[in-house]
Amino acid sequence: MSTIKDITSLPEWESHLASLPPSTLLIVSFHAPWAAPCAQMATVLSALAAGYPSGPGATTSWVSINAEDLSDLSETYNVTAVPFLVLIRDGKVLETVSGSSAVKVRAAIEKHAASPSATASATAHTNGAAASAAAADRQPEVEAHEEETDPEKKKEELFKRLGELVRAAPVMLFMKGTPSAPQCGFSRQLVAILREQAVKYGFFNILADDEVRQGLKEFAEWPTFPQLWVDGELVGGLDIVKEEMGNDPDFFKPYSVSKTNGDAVGA
Questions:
Q1: What is the pLDDT of residue 207?
Q2: Taking all residues of the chain, what is their mean pLDDT, rounded to a whole number?
Q3: What is the pLDDT of residue 114?
Q4: Which class is 4-139 in CATH?
Q5: Bias category Low complexity: which stretches (predicted)?
């Protein structure tokens, strides 16, 4: 059965890519240690990987990457939130899946990989990982449909997700685009401020998820972007951040790091 390999450096990533036959499906899981949904996704992926053969005849390869540590790779594959799954074959991205839905992840993998011969035995494993993934995948379609068509239930789930997102890092920036490629002037200016202040922060590209974009306006009772959140509380947009810094030059001091290095990847 296959296992998940941790990739911790760019040379290791390049070496792994070079070692794969063109027909192999590479399943890349981007995660961040501070994002709770990533731990759940790791459990799901471990169980799914166990259903695919390993060794010389393997048709799949499974790797895990800390999106924050290897930010260059995160930008290369447009990782805007974690957990984030990228499916690659022969150097080409086939599909990406953002979020922690076990059903969506399994469907995407099975769509691009040969059905594992050991699926039945893998889902029968008694360890917690396999049991967790199997339970998620057995969810009746009718139940999922009912949830999708219940507006109150859907809103409740969205607000729960947003509550987790705004607390994914001590400083969270919801912006248009990414820190390396902002898609509006206000987002660009706010990124520049955070970098100047040496703030380590998480970000979320609201252009990549319209549900979050629209839901956060209501959740925050703040209709515009970018939005900066600190310790799970909304600070506001660019003008408010400038005002806070004007009133308190040390506003960002508790969140500064010694090196102005790198922006955390949003959850």
A1: 86
A2: 82
A3: 65
A4: alpha beta
A5: 116-136
